[in-house]
Each structure stands twice: as structure tokens, then as C-alpha cells.
């Protein structure tokens, strides 16, 4: 048999073997941590619970730093209109977030004035909440939008008065040591079990007229300039409408 053919055959088999090793990894390496998953609505065992139906100890008022003035009734948290947006006491980077929310059953107003709220990743990037059941508005302002940037792939909203569920995978932006953006934020959003944002690249903070990434920035309503290259808190918005929440938890990734 031709020696060159044998050599090429050996190299080919060797390359496949190396590729398989790279894909399969080390079969005797460390095993993944064992956790308890979501069971009958209960959070995973490694989750950080931000609202369990009992108290709002994980949150404070965004401006004053005082305790939340939102209402808790029968395990449900409801915006106390005009009392202000809430900010989480803990800061986060990459996360898996679960949050259930419900616009008021009573239809008041239209467009952006109907069941409006939002959850802000890192106090900068808003995932819009809105009563989008038969309620036309600008496309990147409806429920499931990366606000003012991307509309949802489909409108998966339930009727007003019914619970909605968001499951969000958020990848935080990465900055170089000199403050230059290395990698933007990404969002995957499942709304009521339906994929509506698929690893969407966030263009920057969602509340300025022009989206932007800044290493030193002023997050939404926080009113102070800070280092925005690391972990930052979540914001839960008071937009002046009646919106309720339950079962808020996340896992750090």
C-alpha cells in the first residue's frame, strides 16, 4: 500500500479522534451540580428568590432607598401607582430570570397607557410589559419587546386580568479594561411558553433617544453616575398603571 496513502489515512483518523475528544470532553471530569428544578411552580433549589409572596425584602425604592410601598395581598404584589419604581438590593450579571405579571382586568386607557410596566436588566435594558391583548401600539413598545429596539417575534399575550409569564436568559455586556465594549448584551425571552426574542443583540440602554453603551453611565431613574462594566441591579417599573406580580426568581449563570 502507498506510504503516502497510509500517512494521510492516519492523519484523517487522528483528526476525527481529536475532534470527537474535543466535542465529548473528558468523560471522567467533574459532574454538573445537582439541583432541584421547577416543581409545581416552585423555584429551582439554586434560585435567588426576589419575591415569594410574603415580603419585598429584596427590593427598595429606586430614588430614596426606602422600603417598597407596593401592595402585597394574598401572595400577589401590585404597583402602588405613583409610589415609584423598585430596584433590587442585589446586583447581577448573566442570569436566568422568571417573573409572572398580570395587567388589571379592568381596561383603562389604550396603547402605552394600558397595563404598562417593565423589568430592566441591569437597570439599563427594558423588557417591556404591557396589556397587548387587542391593544395596538408601536411595534417595539408592545409586550415582549426589547423596548424601543425589537418587537417580539409574535404577540403571545393573554387577555387582561390573566397571568403572564416571562422566562428571560440575559447575557450581560462585556467591557475591556479601558472601558471599550467588547461584547453587547443579549436577551432570549419566552413569553407564556412561546419564544419571542431569540438571542437578540441589545443595541444599548433602552431609555435614551439613541441606544448607548457606556462604561460609566447613569442607569434608569437611579439618578447617579456609576461604573456600568460589572454587575448591576434589576429595576421593576412603576409606569402609573395597575400591574401585579408573583413568583419572581432568578439563577446566576
TrEMBL record:
KW Signal (keyword) present: yes
TM helices/strands, residue ranges: none
Chain ranges of the 3-keto-alpha-glucoside-1,2-lyase/3-keto-2-hydroxy-glucal hydratase domain: 47-251
A molecular-function term among this protein's GO annotations: hydrolase activity
Pfam families assigned to the protein according to its UniProt record, in alphabetical order: 3keto-disac_hyd
Keywords for the protein's UniProt record, in alphabetical order: Signal
Signal peptide region: 1-19
Keyword Signal found: yes
Name of this protein: 3-keto-alpha-glucoside-1,2-lyase/3-keto-2-hydroxy-glucal hydratase domain-containing protein
Lineage: Bacteria, Pseudomonadati, Pseudomonadota, Gammaproteobacteria, OMG group
Amino acid at each position: 500500500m502507498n506510504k503516502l496513502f497510509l500517512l494521510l489515512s492516519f492523519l484523517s483518523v487522528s483528526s476525527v479522534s481529536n475532534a470527537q475528544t474535543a466535542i465529548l470532553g473528558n468523560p471522567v471530569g467533574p459532574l454538573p451540580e445537582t439541583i432541584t428544578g421547577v416543581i409545581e411552580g416552585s423555584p429551582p433549589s439554586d434560585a435567588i428568590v426576589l419575591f415569594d409572596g410574603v415580603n419585598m425584602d429584596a427590593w427598595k425604592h429606586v430614588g430614596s432607598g426606602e422600603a417598597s410601598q407596593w401592595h402585597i395581598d394574598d401572595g400577589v404584589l401590585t404597583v402602588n401607582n405613583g409610589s415609584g419604581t423598585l430596584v433590587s438590593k442585589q446586583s447581577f450579571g448573566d442570569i436566568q430570570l422568571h417573573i409572572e405579571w398580570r395587567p388589571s382586568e379592568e381596561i383603562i386607557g389604550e396603547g402605552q397607557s394600558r397595563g404598562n410596566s417593565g423589568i430592566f436588566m441591569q437597570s439599563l435594558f427594558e423588557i417591556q410589559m404591557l396589556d397587548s391583548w387587542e391593544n395596538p401600539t408601536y411595534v417595539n413598545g408592545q409586550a415582549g419587546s426589547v423596548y424601543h429596539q425589537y418587537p417580539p417575534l409574535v404577540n403571545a399575550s393573554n387577555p387582561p386580568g390573566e397571568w403572564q409569564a416571562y422566562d428571560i436568559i440575559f447575557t450581560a455586556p462585556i467591557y475591556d479594561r479601558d472601558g471599550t465594549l467588547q461584547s453587547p448584551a443579549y436577551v432570549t425571552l419566552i413569553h407564556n411558553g412561546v419564544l419571542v426574542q431569540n438571542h437578540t443583540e441589545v443595541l444599548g440602554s433602552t431609555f435614551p433617544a439613541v441606544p448607548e453603551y457606556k462604561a460609566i453611565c447613569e442607569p434608569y431613574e437611579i439618578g447617579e453616575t456609576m461604573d456600568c462594566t460589572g454587575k448591576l441591579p434589576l429595576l421593576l417599573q412603576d409606569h402609573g398603571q395597575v400591574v401585579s406580580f408573583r413568583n419572581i426568581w432568578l439563577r446566576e449563570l
